[in-house]
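Deviations from the work plan: none for this task. Representative record:
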Amino acid sequence: MMFPEFFDTTPLRRAIDSGLDWVIANWGAGFEAAAWPLQWTLNTIERGLLATPWWVVIGVLVGLAFAATRKIGLPLVVLVALLFLGFLDLWEDSIKTMALMLTATLGAIGISVPLGVVMSGSPAFRRVVTPVLDLMQTLPSFVYLIPAVMIFGPGKVPAVLATIVYAAPPLMRLTDLGIRLVDPDVLEAGWSFGMTRTQRLIKIQVPLALPTIFAGINQTTMMSLSMVVIASMIGAGGLGYQVLQGIGRLEVSRGLLAGLGIVALAIVFDRITQAFGRRLQKRIGVAEARH
Amino acid sequence: MKLYLKLAVAILAAAALAGTAQAAECGTDRNIDIAEMGWPSAAALARIHATILEQGYGCTVELVPGDTVPTLAAMVSKGAPALAPELWPNASKQAWEKGLVEGAVVDLGPAIAEGLVQGWYIPTYVAEANPELRSVEDLPRFAELFADPDDPGKGRFVSCPPGWACEIMDANFFKAYGLDRTFNLFSPGSAGALDATIAQAFLRKEPIVFYYWGPTAMMGRFDMTRLEMAPFDEEKFACIGDPACPNPEKTDFVVPDAVKAAASWLPQEAPAVAEYLGKVSLTNAEIGRMLVWGEENKADAEAVADNFLRTEAAIWTKWVPAEVAEAIKASLN
């Protein structure tokens, strides 16, 4: 039994479409200019990484892995994963993907951490933002990707924006949660020492919430990597594009290897951010025990 | 589970037989799966065939989503989907010819009778503003006009999504016409993004140079001008389509063809269906009319097909025997 048709949706849909056309024709240039900082950041990161010799990139990431764990295991895993990318001729694509992921993660941090802080302080704001975050995470990305291409032009900018839309919510939620979970006793101590609201936020709440925020950053990195293939569908290039080519030409090998490349990148960034998170947690745990 | 399925199918089939007076024999009790491609004309054709085969011939029909390369590969290797109503074999020429030779697929004739085009296009407003830009040979002098935002020193040519045959052709044409130094090849990643990219440029009256083909809704909607190319040469073009072409040379695109492709079991088991499909043919203008109606009414493929069957009976009744046409007409009301 079909749901009865109460009114014709055609005029509504026509209005939405011609509205979008109007926005593109009249405001398109403005939107593109507004997105310029994003384009600049991405291009700078990408050019910088591509100009860096491969062994420096590997060295830095292995070094980070060591700094985070002070053990030999993780640096070894990172080294193997990166060498895998190099030997399979996926280096340049991996760098492009890495640049996209880093830009999206930076953008997500820039948006999510401040908003998360506001959310933790204002239940009213949280009530408004939570459903928006739910929407951002569930709306199929192609729904906004294609309009984004029409507004910002094809290529990396709409891809980064879409990735931010998808990857920012967990960080915002975890920032909010982390700050609210800070022990009220510690806050009261700060209060009694005459700290202002801002001082309490910067000196107590955010540092104590850092492990949770770091878990959010880890989530955001992983989610931006999972958007790589979809971002390539609007011209972002990188490993995702190789996967698409593999699918389109029925070259299973190409798709599989590039897919494994994405996994290798995911392992590298997941393990490094996780290790840093654990390190922070330990430090704060110890600091708390001393008091 | 399987038994239940079979039972259900049997009951459904019996109900269908009892319910409608059978106009013609389908000939096969196998499921005829029709590939519904992503673009509007092919999707509408798939829906039209589905209705006619189901209501007119009493076949069991299933629509499956498809795309040129994977659908063709599946037809050649597995005999499924059974039917691709608008397949562009040039997109995967080797697989298509191999399938024909091995007898896995059959060519049931052209899907669109005339008026097929493909090539490199610029908006007509750009062509009018730059009268010296007429052919692909002129492009290097106009690289600045089509500047690539990611690499402003060069122009940007909007090529095809990954996996399309034209992606390879465009890359080889780039070499043949020596565009590597002045232009970047840009792949929009998907059909949706390609259309969005073109629509953006047209809506903002900006210059763009891109690959496109027709008949398509985009070509009907936006006024575009084809860039001239060197005369067509079959041998040179064969090399252009080869990803490993050692030395691409100047030539034009081939005039594309779109065929009705069927897995070979379909005409063997269901000759009546094959006869019908053999008769199906639409002109560019007829397809255009269908697409424009869909665009104007924001209709999906199903609604476009339904409208076609209701309003264009003069066309489709020529494809089927009179009693089949009556059964279909009855089913529409």
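DSSP finds 15 helices and eleven strands in chain B.
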